[in-house]
């Protein structure tokens, strides 16, 4: 029994140790919780001009990579609140920008082709991710971000006054793509 506990503790520690401090800080600042999916390990972040992301993982078979992009709303909300007291400034509530941001992301991923964003059921997205809105899109990559991968699915999450999140699932097999997503699908969620 003691050996089993030590093995479990080692595996849990190893998974936690793979998560960079900067990503842990980003999670904490935005009320997010990440759980390393079974059979996945961290991989280096690749600089690109299409979509900033702060953490990535790949499954053991290297058939699915998942990249995590977190955009804190705090800086925009601070500017928005200031703008409300300045008659010379007009600014859109940052909580209204998520659809446009996600449409832009789709255009970036596909080299300018529009992607359809399907919204998740509001009750389901609240229960599964503790988010106020969520949606997803599927596309073929035509950008530096997707180099080495053919297909992508983006899961979009929005939490009012907190953050916007894009989780990008990447594979080369259209038929197995959805199945490959399952293990890591709920790896990131809002905690409050």
Quaternary structure: single chain
Q: Give me the CATH fold name.
A: Jelly Rolls
Tell me the name of the CATH class. Answer: Mainly Beta
Low-confidence stretches: 4-16
What structural class do the secondary elements suggest? Answer: alpha+beta
Largest sheet, in brief, is: 7 strands, antiparallel
Q: Roughly what percent helix?
A: 25-40%
> How many DSSP H or I helices?
6
H/E element order: HHEEEEHHEHEEEHE
Rg: 18 Å
> What is the global morphology?
globular
- Give the rounded overall mean pLDDT: 92
Signal peptide: 1-17
Keywords: Signal
Quick overview:
The protein is of the alpha+beta class and about 190 residues long.
List keywords for this structure.
9 strands; signal; alpha+beta; 192 residues; Jelly Rolls
Q: Would you write up a description of this structure?
A:
The chain is 32% helix and 27% strand. β3 and β4 form a beta hairpin. The strands form two sheets. Strands 2-3-4-8-7-6-5 form a seven-stranded antiparallel beta sheet, sandwiched between helices. It has a two-stranded antiparallel sheet with strand order 1-9. The protein contains six helices and nine strands, in the order ααββββααβαβββαβ. The protein is α+β, with helices and mostly antiparallel strands and 192 residues long. The protein has a single domain, classed as Jelly Rolls (Sandwich), CATH 2.60.120. It is globular.
